[in-house]
Amino acid sequence: xxxxxxxxxxxxxxxxxxxxAEQIFADLPGVETDSAGLSADADVRISTEQILWADIIxxxxxxxxxxxxxxxxxxxxxxRVITLGIPDNYTFxxxxxxxxxxxxxxxFL
Length: 109
Known about the structure:
By secondary structure, the protein is α/β, with parallel strands linked by helices. It is 34% helix and 20% strand. It is globular.
């Protein structure tokens, strides 16, 4: 039996890390993915709807978890928020970033 999970990936600007994560996990059976950024200038800014939709929220850095909790605390009730500890040192789909994401996210799928 496949368990369906909605995974939301968050970083600052939604340019490199979270879109990479969204793409690499999108084709897994039973998994839906989305991504957004927490900064005012993010390509796609986080929305309440995305938070409510997500079963698990992955943030790249501890500062992202803090921002998320500060701004969306009332919508996070019971949500699992996982900090991956991936710094903003990578470009979109960079091999090292893909490998890091795969290794850190695998245990939650």
